[in-house]
User: What shape does this take?
Amino acid sequence: MIDFFARIFIKDYEQVHDINVRAQYGLLCGRLGIFFNLLLFVVKFLAGFLSGSIAVVTDAFNNLSDIGSSVVLLVGFKMSAEKPDLEHPFGHGRLEYVTGLIVSIIIILMGVELVKTSVGKIISPTDVDMSATTVLILISSVLVKLFMYAYNKSAADKLKSAALRGVSADSFVDSVATSIVLLTLVVNEFLGVNADGWCGLLVAVFILITGFTSAKDTIDPLLGTSIDREFAERIELFVESYDGILGMHDLVVHDYGPGRMMITLHAEVPADGDMVKLHDTIDNIERKLKEVLGCEAVIHMDPVAIKDDTRESMEKVAELLVHGISEELSIHDFRMVVGPTHTKLIFDVIAPYRFQYSDDELKREIEKRVQELPGNYYAVVNIDKPFVRE
Assistant: This one.
């Protein structure tokens, strides 16, 4: 849907991973939103004023708040495209999330005000008149809002933008809200039931729900979220496709705004390999990750002894021991330190959040089970948490 406008107004519109092209999409959606919402506000306010319907007036002011949202969206996308500077070396991409949060707050504040107005109308109801003009305006409004929902959702999916996703959800809820207003006028006209205030309250509730949902969607990336499994698997397949890479773990993604990601990971390499050659491979992976996936990458090499039969057998023992506690647990970075009186088994354990044991309890349980193994073994365990969503 958004492609129709993009072809006309955006140069290189298919390059959605380009920061400047992304900003142009946001500016386009913001300008379209200002135009359509201003048009809807004017015609619906006149319709509500002429009919005496608080529900229609409420719906009109909802469109007015949407104008503010479109302005914030427009400014936010423009500012988020600014280049990195001394104060912000990772760029200004997170301003897109801040923009989405501001839009959500505007929606919530408008919803609160409309709740107050609607409650007043419930307490002191007034007559509502339905005219063919009012009905036509409301039907047209529903169609326009569905059109806005379609192009905003199309842009949100294309850009994977939380801010645009919130704007598209708001447009859809607006179309539902206006449909409820229209239904209320029809019921009042033909059944004589004045539910205008209640309808206004219902519309306000829809607005509040949209605001809180959109706020959550924009707060999450600001706080930091776990990694999408599909994205993690793409990185894993890419890294492990290089010769000399045995595996990877400890993938962490730092999100500095859409198209501005920094990732860190540990790449497992043969301990007896040519370190200079392997380091060159790591450099190539880091460079290619930026070219292919748009990620600034920092990779730590983890040497793994691949010809040590004793170490390999003890690693399998440790895996079985950990799985005996729970199949949800996994290990990595396994090492052995053999001494004259005892042997240390050193490894990391990935335990899910809200696991049945606390980290300290799990650590003690693993250490106890290792000490119960035949021979004189001690465990040095570090508990990790997963960064990838299931």
About this structure: The chain is about 65% helix and 15% strand. The longest strand covers residues 261-270.
